[in-house]
């Protein structure tokens, strides 16, 4: 592995470039990585980890069936990070409310939001899943954080990342200075820089959307997908390819590797049910938007930049349209004209 830079060397060198850096973010990230490695090991065991397979028989705050692995991954993430002294509190897809760091541990200045196992409906069929996280700063003067302290717009994130448990385990990370990807060497347990300075191509001919909802789509989304499907003979004058893994981590990772547009848009069915989207702002849409924007892409709800939304609830949902600049701007333009 000597030809690759280890994560620790990479992050230490980044830290050295900031003379006033305290090393606290580095310290926190190392514990986040340790959580991800444990989750990677657990998911990698598949059916052999029989105690971790199947549904837990419980629902999360959003009324979704929890898998045992959702709950175990959530516990692993908390256990691995809460003691480190850099965190003040955490909020997760699998917990109704935020969790302040228990009094027995020192409390730091960072908050973390996370989806411990995104795409968990794919676990049973051995398809890629992942962990998504977003790091925020606790407002000065607040001792023990509550839910309201997490309600910060995405532009305030100091770091965002995801760990993809795919054919290999990869960490993709931004601290606001570009995006870098690291691959886990299962032999040594270290992550190595394998995708430096990731950039999303501005144009694409690949789209990702769950087309089974097409009858509910709003006109701007329907128009765009119809134009993609029309191929060379249509107004976009090129043939498009479609991919949908149904794990946001895997679908966004594809954007970063070869461009594309990923959409989980608003639709009439959601309007009828009174929900404001599928994906959650604080631990799915915001961290992925930070990564996509830092890689030169665009992330929008169709009507506004995702990272500028002022959250009003911990588990708030938003429509998501993200990826290659030219394509996302086209769909946003269709929203503006509708
Ligand atoms: P989860 O966090 O409960 O796994 O749900 C989020 C996932 C995303 O990863 C993915 O984009 C989407 O749900 C798939 O939804 P659908 O099954 O409607 O295609
Ligand atoms: Mg999720």
**What is the total number of structural domains?**
2
What's the CATH class label of the largest domain? Alpha Beta
Helix and strand content put the structural class at: alpha+beta
The CATH topology assignment of the largest domain is Fructose-1,6-Bisphosphatase, Chain A, domain 1
- The chain-level mean pLDDT equals 94
Largest sheet: 8 strands, mixed
Number of beta strands: 17
Distance between the termini: 53 Å
> What coarse outline follows from CA principal-axis ratios?
globular
- Number of continuous helical runs: 8
Classified in CATH, the superfamily of the largest domain is Fructose-1,6-Bisphosphatase, subunit A, domain 1
Radius of gyration: 20 Å
Hetero groups: 2,5-anhydro-1,6-di-O-phosphono-D-mannitol, magnesium ion
Estimate the strand proportion: 15-25%
In terms of quaternary structure, what is this?
A: single chain
Order of helices and strands: HHEEHEEEEEEEEEHEHEHEHEEEH
In the CATH hierarchy, what is the architecture of the largest domain at level 2? 2-Layer Sandwich
Short description, anyone?
The protein has 8 helices and 17 strands. The chain has 338 residues and is α+β, with helices and mostly antiparallel strands.
What does this structure look like?
There is one protein chain. It contains eight helices and 17 strands. The model has no long low-confidence stretch (mean pLDDT 94). Helix 4 (219-230) links the parallel strand 11 (206-208) and strand 12 (241-242). Helix 2 (24-45) runs antiparallel to helix 3 and helix 4 crosses helix 8 (325-337). The protein starts with 6 loop residues before the first helix and ends with a helix. With 338 residues, it is an alpha+beta fold. Bound molecules: 2,5-anhydro-1,6-di-O-phosphono-D-mannitol and magnesium ion. 2,5-anhydro-1,6-di-O-phosphono-D-mannitol (AHM) binds at residues 64, 93, 115, 118-120, 210, 246-248, 264.
């Amino acid at each position: 592995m000597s030809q690759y830079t280890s994560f620790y060397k990479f992050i230490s060198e980044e830290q050295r470039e900031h003379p006033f850096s305290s090393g606290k973010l580095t310290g926190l990230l190392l514990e986040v990585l340790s959580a991800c490695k444990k989750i990677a090991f657990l998911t990698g065991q598949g059916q052999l980890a029989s105690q971790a397979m199947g549904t837990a028989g419980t629902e999360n705050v959003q009324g979704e069936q929890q898998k045992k692995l959702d709950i175990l991954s959530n516990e692993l993430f908390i256990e691995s990070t809460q003691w480190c002294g850099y965190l003040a509190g955490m909020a997760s897809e699998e917990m109704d409310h935020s969790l302040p760091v228990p009094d027995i541990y020192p409390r730091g200045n960072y908050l973390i939001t996370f989806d411990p196992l995104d795409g968990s409906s794919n676990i049973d069929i051995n398809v890629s899943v992942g962990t998504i996280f977003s790091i925020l700063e606790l407002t000065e003067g607040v001792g023990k954080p509550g839910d309201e302290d997490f309600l910060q717009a995405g532009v305030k994130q100091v770091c965002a990342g995801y760990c993809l448990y795919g054919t290999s385990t990869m960490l993709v990370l931004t601290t606001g200075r570009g995006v870098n990807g690291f691959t886990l060497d299962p032999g040594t347990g270290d992550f190595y820089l394998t995708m430096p300075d990731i950039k999303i191509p501005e144009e694409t001919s690949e789209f990702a959307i769950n087309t089974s909802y097409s009858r509910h789509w709003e006109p701007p989304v329907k128009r765009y997908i119809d134009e993609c499907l029309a191929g060379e003979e249509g107004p976009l004058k090129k043939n498009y390819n479609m991919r949908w893994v149904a794990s946001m981590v895997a679908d966004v990772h594809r954007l970063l590797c070869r461009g594309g547009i990923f959409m989980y848009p608003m639709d009439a069915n959601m309007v009828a049910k009174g929900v404001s989207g599928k994906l959650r702002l604080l631990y799915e849409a915001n961290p992925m938007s930070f990564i996509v924007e830092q890689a030169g892409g665009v992330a929008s709800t169709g009507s506004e930049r995702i990272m500028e939304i002022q959250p009003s609830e911990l588990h708030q949902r938003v429509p998501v349209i993200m990826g290659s600049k030219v394509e996302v701007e086209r769909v946003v333009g269709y929203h503006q004209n509708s």
